[in-house]
Amino acid sequence: MADGSEKEAVVSNKQVIFKDYISGFPKESDMAINSDGNVKLKVAAGSKDIVVKNLYLSCDPYMRLLMSNQSSEVFGPYAPGTVIKGFGVGKVLESGDPELKQGDLVWGMTGWEEYSVLKSADGLFKIQHTDVPLSYYTGILGMPGVTAYAGFYEVCKPKKGEYVFVSSASGAVGQLVGQFAKLTGCYVVGSAGTQHKVELLTNKFGFDDAFNYKEEPDLNTALKRYFPEGIDI
């Protein structure tokens, strides 16, 4: 944590550093803790920099791609030797951007570190509702929830009674899409990669049915079995 009060001009800043590109699943040894960093809590005059104290950080599947020297649809690969970037929730300590002021709570892209200096308010969303746990803004009220809501309601435009298939249904976005579909009155089937995840879909998330795609020799045949009348979404 910081040495001394956050009102000091410079404080220590513990960081998680990405060491080098990975093959397969990431391991703890692919990252390192830097305890020697520091950060200025004041922004330069005329700058639009924003100093944020990070409160919650999100670990999401797309980050594995960036660790493998690949790009997601939005982000480029991580650079070895730099702080890992991801979605999080933070409190504004100092802001040169008129859109944000000291004390504001925000969610958006930040660093895996105690404090981040962000170059602008682009990609940051001011939190208006604090009557729910702030950690929700890394989930249902953050990127996964916005993705699920916009994709399902704004793009798919579902109607009651439609048949909905959700792949990767136990993931952060997929399980929300399935629950939104059920709230809309749709019939929902999801696929996942383990029996445990399949049971979560039907027993906890309320899917009408689910199957393990790894146990299906032919996906088209499986979908026809679960949707004999066809799939709407």
UniProtKB/TrEMBL annotation:
<dbReference type="Pfam" id="PF16884">
    <property type="entry name" value="ADH_N_2"/>
</dbReference>
<dbReference type="InterPro" id="IPR013149">
    <property type="entry name" value="ADH-like_C"/>
</dbReference>
<dbReference type="GO" id="GO:0032440">
    <property type="term" value="F:2-alkenal reductase [NAD(P)H] activity"/>
</dbReference>
<dbReference type="InterPro" id="IPR045010">
    <property type="entry name" value="MDR_fam"/>
</dbReference>
<feature type="domain" description="Alcohol dehydrogenase-like C-terminal">
    <location>
        <begin position="172"/>
        <end position="233"/>
    </location>
</feature>
<protein>
    <submittedName>
        <fullName>NADP-dependent alkenal double bond reductase P2</fullName>
    </submittedName>
</protein>
<dbReference type="InterPro" id="IPR011032">
    <property type="entry name" value="GroES-like_sf"/>
</dbReference>
<dbReference type="Pfam" id="PF00107">
    <property type="entry name" value="ADH_zinc_N"/>
</dbReference>
<keyword id="KW-0560">Oxidoreductase</keyword>
<dbReference type="InterPro" id="IPR036291">
    <property type="entry name" value="NAD(P)-bd_dom_sf"/>
</dbReference>
<feature type="domain" description="Oxidoreductase N-terminal">
    <location>
        <begin position="14"/>
        <end position="126"/>
    </location>
</feature>
<dbReference type="InterPro" id="IPR041694">
    <property type="entry name" value="ADH_N_2"/>
</dbReference>
